[in-house]
Specification:
- Its cofactor is Zn(2+).
- The structure is a single chain.
- This protein is of the alpha/beta class.
- It contains 13 helices and twelve strands.
- An eight-stranded parallel sheet has the order 1-12-9-8-5-4-3-2. Strands 6-7 form a two-stranded antiparallel ribbon. Strands 10-11 form a two-stranded antiparallel ribbon.
- Helix 4 packs parallel to helix 13.
């Protein structure tokens, strides 16, 4: 169900719960994600699985659903033989699948169309390094077609997420401007810097004068790095902050699995809220159970 009120209006009054990691829920459902398209492969041959994963998070209390388009690009689909028209249809399907989850549960949900970084298309981990050797203009040219295709499908907001550096943030904002849709800008960070090594205060400042940006913050980072980033984002921009870190487990590329101890704890949400977070949830390896705890924490504050 589509909410009556814009997300920006809701954020002015309360904290809204995001969903968690889509890939880990799809894996829990038995889906094979060993493909360069990652979860976006299921837009081609398993869209019902994507809707089921979204639905699990809505049932857990998420009221913002992030689409499966993070790694979906015209270039990636072309490598699988899909032409531009088919690729645009698959991008639209990601929005439709997310919207269907709200309908399945009978809950109003905002759909955030995921726009992942250029490095996600490369499928080599470079989204955690940035600095691809491309200019801002070249990155804008890459991002614009899929942003336009996603916007045409009618999401409530564009999630410009897992952004590793300020060049890509600038390009994403430029590519989204003509759509007129609200956006949030979310960096992946390590300590007090972007993954490319820029101070997070400088990175967040790009959003300060952008009226289209309804929230700015971090995702796909360590839970322990989140509170500081939220404080800086709120202080620099004066905007609501979005925060959805990973579980704290580390990806082992050699074995193709996450390792280590999960440090994501729903009780951390209270500190994020106190620092200015108004959109809270989880990213990689944060499942519906954890999101249910986040929703309960938000409801109790």
């Amino acid at each position: 169900m589509r909410p009556v009120r814009p997300l920006a209006a809701a954020l002015a009054e309360r904290t809204v719960v995001l969903d968690g990691g889509l890939s880990n829920q799809l894996a829990a459902q038995g889906c094979d994600l060993s493909d360069a398209l990652w979860s976006a492969r299921l837009l081609v041959d398993g869209p019902e699985q994507i809707t089921a994963a979204h639905t699990a998070y809505v049932r857990a209390g998420a009221r913002v659903v992030i689409t499966s388009s993070y790694q979906a690009t015209f270039e990636g689909f072309a490598r699988r033989g899909a032409g531009p028209a088919e690729a645009a249809r698959l991008l639209a399907r990601s929005v439709e699948s997310a919207r269907a989850a709200g309908e399945a549960v009978g809950e109003e949900v905002w759909v955030a169309a995921s726009v992942g970084p250029y490095g996600a298309m490369l499928a080599d981990g470079s989204e955690y390094r940035g600095r691809y050797g491309l200019t801002v203009r070249e990155l804008t040219r890459f991002h614009r077609p899929r942003i336009e295709a996603l916007a045409a499908a009618g999401p409530d907001v564009l999630a410009l997420e897992t952004v590793p550096d300020t060049d890509e943030a600038e390009a994403l904002l430029a590519a989204a401007r003509a759509t007129g849709l609200p956006v949030w800008l979310s960096y992946t960070v390590a300590g007090g810097s972007t993954r490319a090594g820029q101070p997070i205060a400088d990175a967040f400042s790009l959003a300060r004068g952008e009226g289209q940006v309804i929230a700015v913050g971090v995702n796909c980072c360590e839970p322990g790095d989140t509170e500081q980033a939220v404080e800086v984002a709120a202080g620099v921009t004066g905007k609501p902050v979005v925060a959805y870190p990973n579980s704290g487990e580390r990806w082992d590329a050699a074995s193709g699995r996450f390792r280590g101890r999960a440090t994501f704890d729903a009780s951390l949400v209270r500190a994020w809220q106190a620092a200015g977070a108004r959109l809270v949830g989880g990213c990689c390896q944060v499942g519906p159970g954890a999101i249910a705890e986040v929703a309960a924490t938000v409801a109790s504050v």
